[in-house]
């Protein structure tokens, strides 16, 4: 089995998103798709998965031309995609999520579907109880749910579009184990990323896009500098930046302690100045999320003090934090950041 993309082109207004792209992907291959933001990666995989139609070019699977006018066409042809944020119905159970993705042409027996979920979970090391509600799953488990559903629907080509964006290191390792097992079982996998270490560690070959153009396809692992050159058109040693001149101290955390059901932070001391960008590093569950929620007024601290512009603001109302420019963008955008079913305009209206 092989997937062939032949002379794929797509234009949005004056932007040539994909320019005459041709690439072959073999059975059992993990094929990377690499490029910086705006290189054309998402456009190409959306064409392959039926979400977009190309302006010219063809997609072939096993020598057969595919008419991919919708994602349903792609699924029926054996092509599925796992998006950055898994497209699951959060209020539904796992078994109901399976059935919600069922083509109208297929009959089903609910008991058999449950058995299928258990069998797929056992084969690939997933922990999926058919009766668990999807909202109770982690992002990594929601990915497992979507992969299992795609396997159940018979896909032979799996596209993963930036799948590690919102998962922990442990979840990433589990995902990579699953991907390798899928490839070993004959699945063709397209792995989309702009993270060089991931491409090097998991892919067999990588195709590099730049400004909509296919620059080259390489066998990996290979020298990282080769990939950088292909992505950006040349590699220049970075020049050390001068030390940034910071403004006055803006925010001070003095021994902040807070806890939630699954995390806790103890005696956190930090100072943040105007014009400063602070990075937080740590494993999943180390307390980064709880610290950010405490800083922005979403979680109360039970000990310690917070000062903003010299004023003590410990445990002020969330409304106060919002009015004074504190904003929190969660990793789980669909679960914490957005309200399903509301339009963009309605979301804006809620902030008023």
Description of the structure:
This protein has 352 residues and is of the alpha/beta class. The protein folds into 2 domains: 2-232, Rossmann fold (3-Layer(aba) Sandwich); 249-351, 3-Layer(aba) Sandwich (Rossmann fold). It is 31% helix and 27% strand. It has 12 helices and 14 strands. The strands form 3 sheets. Strands 6-7-8-3-9-10 form a 6-stranded mixed β-sheet, sandwiched between helices. It has a 4-stranded antiparallel β-sheet with strand order 2-1-4-5, with helices on one face. A hairpin with a 2-residue loop joins β9 and β10 (213-219). The mean pLDDT is 88.
What's the CATH architecture of the largest domain?
3-Layer(aba) Sandwich
CATH superfamily placement of the largest domain: P-loop containing nucleotide triphosphate hydrolases
Query: How many structural units, i.e. domains?
Result: 2
* Adjacency order of strands in the biggest sheet: 6-7-8-3-9-10
Q: In percent terms, what proportion of residues is strand?
A: 25-35%
Share of helix among residues?
A: 25-40%
CATH topology of the largest domain: Rossmann fold
**In CATH's first tier, which class of the largest domain applies?**
Alpha Beta
The beta-strand count equals: 14
For the terminal residues, how far apart are their CA atoms? 54 Å
> Overall pLDDT, averaged?
88
Oligomer type: single chain
C-alpha Rg (nearest Å): 23 Å
Low-confidence region ranges: none
Form type: globular
Largest sheet: 6 strands, mixed
Category by helix and strand content:
alpha/beta
Number of helices: 12
Topology pattern, helix = H, strand = E: EEEHEEHEHHHEHEHEEHEEHEEHHH
